[in-house]
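Schema walkthrough. Field components (list of strings):
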Amino acid sequence: MHNPLRIAVAGLGTVGSSVVRIIQNEKLSLFDKAGSDLVVSAVSARDKNRDRGVDLANIDWHDDAKNLIQDNIDILVEVIGGADGVAYDIVKAALGKGISVVTANKALLAVHGSELAQLAEQNNAHLKYEAAVAGAIPAIKAVREGLAANQITSIYGILNGTCNYILTQMRETGGSFNEILKEAQDKGYAEADPSFDIDGVDTAHKTALLAAAAFNMAPDFNHIPTRGIRHVTSTDICYAEDLGYKIKLLGVVRKTDLGIEQSVEPCLVDLNTPLAAIDGSLNAVYTESPFAHETLMVGRGAGGDPTASAVVADIIDIARGVHISPFGVPSEKWNDTPMADMDERMVASYIRLIVEDSPGVLADISGILRDENISIQSALQLSEITKGIVPLILITHTVKTKALKGALAKIEKLRSVKEQPFTMRIIEQE
Amino acid sequence: MHNPLRIAVAGLGTVGSSVVRIIQNEKLSLFDKAGSDLVVSAVSARDKNRDRGVDLANIDWHDDAKNLIQDNIDILVEVIGGADGVAYDIVKAALGKGISVVTANKALLAVHGSELAQLAEQNNAHLKYEAAVAGAIPAIKAVREGLAANQITSIYGILNGTCNYILTQMRETGGSFNEILKEAQDKGYAEADPSFDIDGVDTAHKTALLAAAAFNMAPDFNHIPTRGIRHVTSTDICYAEDLGYKIKLLGVVRKTDLGIEQSVEPCLVDLNTPLAAIDGSLNAVYTESPFAHETLMVGRGAGGDPTASAVVADIIDIARGVHISPFGVPSEKWNDTPMADMDERMVASYIRLIVEDSPGVLADISGILRDENISIQSALQLSEITKGIVPLILITHTVKTKALKGALAKIEKLRSVKEQPFTMRIIEQE
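Field assembly_structure (string):
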């Protein structure tokens, strides 16, 4: 390992700037831990003149990130973002030259992780991504190393702070999704284009990486059925609570008899479980495994310093000579357990129907459910939302997803049903 | 690294047996992760004939653990326990020969960690102890590696499952300490001689190790002022709750202007904070640091499988070539920040006095407190416990420990004060 360890930082947004600042300000402490001097030798960003509160004197500046990939760097820190484009190009170029990569880019690895991990392996380079999942929480390290004695059986993650913040605020203020989203945007807690967050894409990227690190397999973002929180209403939040649940957007990965189940969806979580207590913009990762049993990790999932904390930890690991395959085992050993057919998955569900308040409606719906062998644990008809129109909340027992889908397709066609049914998975206590 | 990696297990109690079982039953999965075959080649315990539910055929048996330390082993797993005696002897002998050691023995490392870490360093051997703190929770890895970018500022740990269970049961049932301890002993949740647990010694051992790993220093068990939960009454639990707190036995480590503060004591934790929610026999480690900010880790702190999960993770780390100094930096770099003078420490306190129910008592006490400049946030006189005798609960603002001690020494001498005052620290929200 070269000493000093020469680090190039691609992207000087809040995370990149914070990485540079930590490496500069914590020089002595990092040297003691890393065993080498850490030096930011080059950076790239669009605008050289912007004040980022970091000292860029003595650091090579490149307008084009591609020019960072030279023989005089040991580690590329990629914090540009995006699954493709420059980020993909430079990470590939770096690994191809045997330059180690530390990235906070979940989209990149969720989509191209398999190719990039193999490229790293061929070139004996590190590819590290602690910062890509759950920010400051060392969740990748925990599932890949700390729990390595276990074949982990399930992971439940609250992985998007924006969604958790919105759901928490909706619950605490009674505000609608759109009102709270607007507020969050005004406060800078949500992006101007929030769709990656609220539609669950960001959570799915992170879920794919957590699954890969925990189950020792290639990330498989494209096979994660993903639904976000856009259609969660304050009615849902209110009635979930009456029934003893909080609504959380969860990335879920489980190993069952069907194979590996991965999903991102709003879920009802028992109020008495630890995950239900994780409010605001906090992230959390809950695991179940045969020997360690349950573990929970909680912390800041986003922000410059928390994310940079994870980036710098990865750099120290590299300096310390910690060389572990990105997904825990060499690519030839990747777990090839098939993905579960999600239609076969057994889940309990919360169903919200918007129906005419007329006799016979419940009978029609119950009949369809009975024909599909779906048993209902409880049904709750709420008060009118507009004249003659009421929400009807149904809680099913655990049933096969396919059966529920079939029933809902039929229910949706009933004349008395006024909106597309909205469902949420209920997380059963183990 | 020898392949297969030959492991000797000293001690076949629940943890040792579970280590052997996991290594045998998870052979293929562990091989993929570790990159070498893991083989238990020798074991030692007292009674060869006891049925431990593990297959000991083809494993060398030794009645005397000392005979395990031979050139044909790569890793010694020490799960005998105890700060001195056989455990100390064999760990020292192994490290002296360059044999790596994985231990769950907090007492050993809390007392002899400095010497043993240096011995490991001189002989280029690993000394790993994840299992010694918070069982299955990868807390040592988190503070030493996952948060390595940070100079951690504080750690609050619920590190003893027996104490947490007793305090939880006292709160939930209203039972007395002695009743609940007896119940816990009957159920096997507490030892026949519970003093190591309930007097805080076990927590202090773990606190010393967490502090060492997080603050990169030699463990300093002998300078941790330690009080346990033996004197916590159901009155305390009840009034703490009325005041908005739960009582937890906490190992606390903080870096302040005074130096490094370490302590083990029953504390009042705000009901709305995450640590307050950790009930039953669960363990938890909460950290504060400049970049990651707050993190919380929760899980099983004891038991055969959870502890063995951590032991086996350490073995996999060794097989993967992860060689990090036991306390994060080489011994020559150990943090030499002085320990704080705990008498100078600023804390808010809960004080329980048992006093005569007569006019003037409060005036006497208040006068003493005023003379020491201790300001009282609230005072609560409870109803009679026996004729004419009442508990008086005082909550102080943040004051210097020395002043409080001085005042309490005077208060104790008042004729109207019938028992030694009992105090608990109040953990202020950051």
